[in-house]
Amino acid sequence: MKNPFRKDIILVIILTIISIISIIIYPLIKYPLNIISYIPLALFLPGYAFMAATYPLKDDLGLLKRIIGSIILSVLLTLLLILIINIKILGINLTSAFLLIGILTILLSIDALEGNWRNSKEEDIEKEEDIEKEEDIEKEEDIEKRSFVSKDLLLIFLTTLLAIIFIVTPKLNETFIRTILGLFLILFIPGYSLIAALFPKKGDLDGIERAALSFGLSLAVTPLIGLALNYTSWGIKLTPILISLSAFTIIMVLIAYIRRRRVPEDEKFYVNFGGFISSIKESFKGESKTSKILSIILILSIILAIGTTAYIIIKPKQGETFTEFYILGPGGQASGYPTNLTVGQNASVIIGIVNHEYQTVDYNLVVTSNGTVMSNQNITLTDGNKTEIPYSFSSSTAGNKTIQFLLYKLPDNTNVYRSLHLFVNVV
Fold first, then answer.
1. Do 40 and 127 share a structural domain?
2. Are residues 116 and 159 in the same domain?
3. Looking at the structure, do residues 225 and 349 belong to the same domain, yes or no?
């Protein structure tokens, strides 16, 4: 059996694994000289894996075109990820981006190996017995169908479980993987599971239609679930939405599995993960020029819609930026303020600060009494966080005192950003 390009694909996988391990052990931000681990992933390996998966046979593409295409694709992918990093989509850094490139390269290489093995096997069948070629291919397809019948449903189920784990686990929910899985759970998984339950046969819809409807129905199902939750005691909160979406998906997956089992073997829908890219190429071969153009437009529209929706979710439009600044009485209520004191008597209030600036802010809190500084401290708050600081004071002299609470938004420590006053009569 001929295995063209098998050794080089295995070499790509080995080099990619070495680069990933090197990046994990010696990140670029800690060891600038370790840039050599990033160069293969940035300039060659992912593009070569993609070309090998798209053109698995030696005669499909010349060596020079294959190398040039590999470099161009790798550079474009690297530039795209750098752009994503710069505009802070998904919140990933350079090291994480190259780890993603490495994982993508390995997946494409595995796909290329499977496509290569399948093509080589078909060539041997043709050489050995041309008369029985069609029968052998049909048998191979039947085996493939039985093998892949429910792998897509299993993948949807496992992805849903992973999304739940990464959303509810404290340490994991701070990673960019949580954002990616969350987007899948909102934008694709509910719709795909519903389509799988409604259309268990392969002839019901083609691949592009299933993908388009999966995204479209997900964008319809998710708001409807949120609307239904709004009329319950739970409300539209993260936990109820996560539970509802996950439950909907798992129920649809079970229904889809049951319905597929009842469909005749040769009519069952399945996803051929091993020959995914090859299947896309095959689906375009039988179409007219107009159909190909319309299919490409549909695919680009889906990608644009997904990207736009994901960007809106990840980077919502900022509203008005401001900081809440308040004082409460000693009971934590907006009452009971110490306005009448005796000389030497201790009084207390609670100073509250809430950050609505859509960024982490450093504050300087200054408390004065008739112009004399009584307290000075720096406070750092991330967006959406708040702090309430108990503060005690007293006066050694009688008279009317004006306690001023001044908040500066650093680095500007000249202009007061927010101010509050408490008038106290000391006898």
1. yes
2. no
3. no
DSSP 371-419: TEEEEEEEEEE-TT-EEEEEEEE--SS-EEEEEEEEEEETT--SS-SEE
Please check whether residues 342 and 264 belong to one and the same domain: no
Q: Which of 317, 340, 356 is the last residue of a domain?
A: 317
From residue 18, alpha-carbon distances to 10, 22, 230, 293 in Å are: 12, 6, 50, 41
**What averages of pLDDT result for each successive group of 10 residues across the chain (427 residues)?**
62 83 63 65 84 72 78 81 61 70 82 70 58 53 49 86 83 75 85 89 78 83 84 77 88 88 80 59 62 68 64 61 89 85 89 88 91 89 87 87 91 89 88
pLDDT of residue 396: 85
Measured distance CA(248)–CA(193) in Å, rounded: 9
Angle between helices 207-230 and 289-314 (to 10 degrees): 30
CA distance 358 to 366: 23
Burial of 235 (0-12, 13-18, 19+ CB in 10 A): exposed
Considering Cα of 87, then 91, then 97, then 101, what sign does the dihedral take? negative
Predicted pLDDT at 145: 46
- Per the CB < 8 A criterion, the answer to whether 17 and 103 are in contact is no
> Quick check: is 56 in a domain?
yes
Is residue 422 helix, strand or coil?
strand
pTM: 0.44
Q: Do 92 and 167 fall within a single domain?
A: no
Residue 7, sorted as left (phi over 0), alpha (psi -120 to 50) or beta, turns out to be alpha
If one counts the domains in the chain, the total is 3
Structure tokens at 235: 């409300």
Provide the pairing of β-strand 361-369 with 372-381: antiparallel
CATH number at residue 364: 2.60.40.10
pLDDT value of residue 225: 86
Q: Compute the distance between CA of residue 116 and CA of residue 110 in angstroms, rounded to an integer.
A: 10
**Domain span holding position 252:** 150-269+286-317
> Strand 340-341 to strand 418-426: parallel, antiparallel, or no bridges (unpaired)?
parallel
Same domain, 114 and 154: no
Residue that the structure tokens 């409300």 belong to: 235
CB-based contact 136:128 (threshold 8 Å) = no
